[in-house]
Amino acid sequence: MLRQLLPIALIACAASTSASANLKVDEAIKYRQSAYTFMAWNMGRIRANTEGELSRDEVVKAANAIAAIANSGLGSLFVPGSDQGKGWIETRAKSEIFTDGAGVGKVAMRFNQEANAMAAIAGTGDAAALKAQLGKLGATCKSCHDNYRAKAAE
Amino acid sequence: MLRQLLPIALIACAASTSASANLKVDEAIKYRQSAYTFMAWNMGRIRANTEGELSRDEVVKAANAIAAIANSGLGSLFVPGSDQGKGWIETRAKSEIFTDGAGVGKVAMRFNQEANAMAAIAGTGDAAALKAQLGKLGATCKSCHDNYRAKAAE
């Protein structure tokens, strides 16, 4: 039941936001590429902290940024037709994003859950727990990439 | 006194983060361009909400994203030598960023303060207050651009 409702929620979100409704395809692609790229920096910072000297402050800052971006409503940046277009670079989003609502809703929900779980433990300074949570969070990224992002050109 | 200390804090931050220490110039530029671009989307969403039908939920999401990014330690992305280089595009960062520590510290602190103030009132649904705060926040962006970013090529 939840899985069936999620795509509807995503679509409703995209359609109801006045700012997003006016977004051009290439703008939307640029904004989402920016979001994922900035999150990648923060993932890397958390990883580096679990592998070296750990700064709780930096982990908290990085995890909060990831969670806030994950919770910001990125779904509304997947405007209709944005499986084709150029933001900073050509998008690699597959058309399945716009047809497999149930599957997309599932990975999107997992991504948000794991991002929030990371933010919740960021201040503990427990390197092993942070590393484990980073693995779970990274798995949600990979899951979406495997299914909904075309491979990079060789 | 505070103005003299701030640049030291910024430099210390950049030097002490293990992840940032290994950042290449072009990576750092790409990450910061991503951060500012994603914040621009969220600024636009808040503006649209103050000018049309207001969604408290969307304003909160957007304001939280801006604040978390502002608080994430963007200063560490201004690695030495990154007034020259190409992230998504050629950087327009002026070399003054690396020489005017007191001035940069001041605009950075104001930006963080206004971003946090925006997040604090985001849930009120008070369009006039949100618009006024957006003006204050936008003024900190403009202040930095006017002083530390080269004009776009015609």
TrEMBL record, chains A, B:
Q: Could you tell me the keywords of this UniProt record?
A: Electron transport, Heme, Iron, Metal-binding, Signal, Transport
Q: Which GO terms describe its biological process?
A: electron transport chain
GO CC field = periplasmic space
Molecular function terms from GO: electron transfer activity; heme binding; iron ion binding
- Superkingdom of source: Bacteria
- Where heme c binds, per the record, is at 141, 144-145
InterPro entries linked to this entry: Cyt_c/b562, Cyt_c_II, Cyt_c_prime, Cyt_c_prime_subgr
- Gene3D superfamilies tied to this protein: Cytochrome c/b562
Q: What does UniProt give as the signal peptide span?
A: 1-21
Mention any Pfam family matching this sequence: Cytochrom_C_2
Q: How is it modified after translation?
A: Binds 1 heme group per subunit.
Q: Write down what this protein is called.
A: Cytochrome c556
Originating species: Paraperlucidibaca baekdonensis
Its taxonomic path starts at: Bacteria, Pseudomonadati, Pseudomonadota, Gammaproteobacteria, Moraxellales
